Amino acid sequence: MQPQMHHQSSITTPDPVRSADRRAAARLNPSCFACGAENPRGLHLQFTPAPAGGVSLEWTPPETLESFRGIIHGGIVTTVLDEAMSHAVVESHWKALTAEVRVRFHQSVHAGERLRVSARVVERRKRRILTEATMKTLAGEQRAHAWGTFLLVPEH
Asked: In terms of residue numbers, what domain contains 69?
């Protein structure tokens, strides 16, 4: 049985009655490398809902995540952006998995640099959820931009 969908621009949202069920199904794993509070080697990212929709986070990457001296590894930057988009999907009350991520690196991300990471759902097309995320300095200089496609997990 499909939940009724209400349309708002190109993004569909689930029926509020079913939202709690889907949010519960999309529980976060406490051992997750990116956001898990119980992972001793994890990033411990904690996203908050953004006023205009989506999620945001203020993050200062430590030196332990460097590749070249002073520069954060691109795989870590990609992980943080993917996690942000994943949390934007969960915030929209959907349970979905990353199918594809594309990242454009504008400038190096430096250890100790305070950053704002933001993500939002752009559109839902049947099972596909399109997302977007940015990583900027607090002064607004863009470091990286990501686009993601997530696939809804079928209900059983």
From this structure: 50-156
